[in-house]
Amino acid sequence: MTRALLALPTVLGAALVLTGCIDRVVESRVESALVKNGVSQSNAECMAGRMVDRLTIEQLRKLEGLAPQAGESKRPSGVRDLLRRLERVGDTEVLAVTGSSAALCATGLVGSSR
Question: pLDDT tens, 2-61?
Fold first, then answer.
């Protein structure tokens, strides 16, 4: 019985991964963070799907560096301001994926993954 209980988190974790639950949760969090940083809801939805597919969890966590620093407004005033904040993240792949996702989603060349 004890071994079965110890194995339960592993089995549940595998089930969540296989059903895509974790990806949906991560995508939702990335989408929310993008909206909080001035990206429109439709673009954030589109970008989040691409970003979750292309970046690691560690890289996605680096996006917390988008939070405003002293003297900055709560939301970036535009794409240029957002890109300046992205440079703070210090990861060229994060910058490239976020920038290309923003461009492709804004132009409508790709759509939401939902």
Answer: 555 455 566 555 554 555 666 788 899 899 888 887 788 999 999 999 999 999 999 998
CA quadruple 51, 52, 58, 63: dihedral sign: positive
For 48, residues 6+ apart whose C-beta sits below 8 A from its C-beta are: 27, 28, 30, 31, 34
Q: 108: burial class by Cβ within 10 Å (0-12, 13-18, 19+)?
A: exposed
Spell out a b/e string for 44-72, using b for 16 or more CB atoms within 10 Å of the CB, else e: bbbbbbbbbebbeeebbebbeebeeeeee
Helix (H, G, I), strand (E, B) or coil at 21: helix
Mean pLDDT of 84-111: 87
Residues 91, 104 contacting (CB under 8 angstroms): no
